Amino acid sequence: MARIFDVIEYPNEMKEELVHRFPEDGSGDFRIGSQLIVRESQNAVFFRDGKALDTFGAGRHTIATANIPLLVDLIGKAFGDRTPFTAEVYFVSMREFLDRKWGTPQPIVMQTPGIGLGWLLLQSFGTYAYEVADPQQFVTQVVGSQGKYRTDDIENDLRSRLLRSLSDLLGEMKGKYTTIQDIIGNQEEISAGVRAKVADDFAARGLELKGFVITNMSPSNKSAEELRDMGLLDTATYTQLQAADAMRDAANNPSGGAGLTAGIGAGVGIGNVMGEALRGATSGGAAGGAAAAGIPDVMTPSEAAGILKVSEEDVVAAIEAGDLAAKKLGKAYRISKDALEAFLNG
């Protein structure tokens, strides 16, 4: 025999729980006159056959056809009849969920005309806060008939929407800022823009975004190879950056590490990168002199690749792109010392 409930309540703080269905499985048999107890920071939504009958705020409520008029048609009985009827109650947490974390798993690509190569890769992270604004809509549009619905069930989706809005907003800001410092210095403006941009998306799910904060935003140190794979560097520029690293390494620059090419993700221009490499090579003392002295007057692409510490294919690509001057004899290329030095000087 089905259990008949005279008291309907969910005495739980719902710290990480957004919605709890009562009962969790099947439908409950409730009496007219039953007591519905709704805790602070809760709302309760009555459902029958997928249709919302009413929503109740915090307090003690007596279930009657006077406060749920749809019950008249539901049970087909006169007011005051104690006959049970089947329904479900969804307890919805109305508290604000604070300090939720978000971050960019991959750098966001931003076009920056006049800065570096014209592209900037930004990494960012921060916090956001949200709450249920329309419990009936949230249950209907998002939760469905699930017995429990926790923050983990929705926050991946919310973060993806926030990141998509951030990416779209940065794309719309093309040309607005003239330096990297301008972009990073306007984090509050960007945060406000994201809040406005995503507000309707949250509202369509019965939610309200209460806050979105960018805690940190900084250029990424993506390597030139990764940027090339993303389609942001052409082969010729990539070859020049590799050559810059080779010159720097040849000069035994103690500031070496990830390579000059890593700085390109931070908006460093190709001219600056090449200039730094050449300064390291020419001011490297004996090591720099030895590297320069080791360049023959005429060399093959393979020999040039050995000097530059890149592949022969990269040298040929630079020649075919017109960045490295060479003489073609039949099917073979020959590169002069002057042409190689001119290439390295940018």
**Which structural class do the helices and strands define?**
alpha+beta
Shape: rod-shaped
How much of the polypeptide forms β-strand, as a percent range? 25-35%
Q: What string, H for helix and E for strand, traces the elements in order?
A: EEEEEEHEEEEHEHHHEHHHHEHHEEH
- The overall pLDDT, averaged over residues, is 80
- What's the total number of strands? 15
Question: How would you describe this structure to a colleague?
Answer:
- This protein is of the alpha+beta class and 346 residues long.
- It is built from twelve helices and 15 strands.
- Strands 1, 2, 3, 4, 5, 6, 7 and 11 form an eight-stranded mixed β-sheet that branches. Strands 8, 9, 10 and 12 form a four-stranded antiparallel β-sheet that branches.
- Helix 3 (152-172) crosses helix 5 (187-203) and helix 7 (235-250) packs parallel to helix 8.
- The radius of gyration is 33 Å and the shape is rod-shaped.
